[in-house]
Amino acid sequence: MSAPLISFRNVARSYGAGEAEVRALDGVSFDIRPGEFVSIMGPSGSGKSTAMNIIGCLDRPTSGEYLFKGIPAQGLDQDRRALLRRHALGFVFQGFNLLARQSALENVELPLIYKGLPAAERRALAREALRKVGLEGRESHDPSQLSGGQQQRVAIARALAGGPEVILADEPTGNLDSARGHEIMRLLQALNREEGITIVMVTHEDDIAHYAGRLMVFTDGHLTRDEPVKERA
Prior knowledge:
26% strand, ABC_transporter-like_CS, MacB-like_ATP-bd, Rossmann fold, ABC transporter ATP-binding protein, alpha/beta, transport
């Protein structure tokens, strides 16, 4: 069995102090291995988003340990955490977060600029990422010329372009109708199976969660279920 890619060791996260203290996570432990597709579910305030933010190096545990490839990520300084996000993690959000005045190709290129890649290499990687999500021929379209599902495909291509080890997807179908949502999930499922990319996804929709191979459920800051699921074809 491969070594864990992501590990939580008795992770707790609190906000506030005294009577105002909120314990968003309370002693959570789990491992995620390379190539897994994990869905995280739970009601509002359950801790699922806090867990995702810690995995994405957007937050730190109050206590316990978060390891990425065996390295304690919460101990990294701000610059090294930014490098980890830039080189190992890709992010997909509910709201697409595309730049309205930029083409699909330019939107996908954006994180590659921050990585300092030459223009020709950026352009080639962005074109290949758009091809992988089924948008070959739409490179010059700006977001207003694309459907919601196509915009989310651009966002996924942007996450893919830098060659991440993990894609973190936060409610990736939340702004889409049912048909487009299932299209996006079949795309993520294919990227996981064919490209071997580890995917960690937060969703509140049970049918969407079952595109993954593993389901984790949070309740009141605790991991209350962690089980394999039969993936949707």
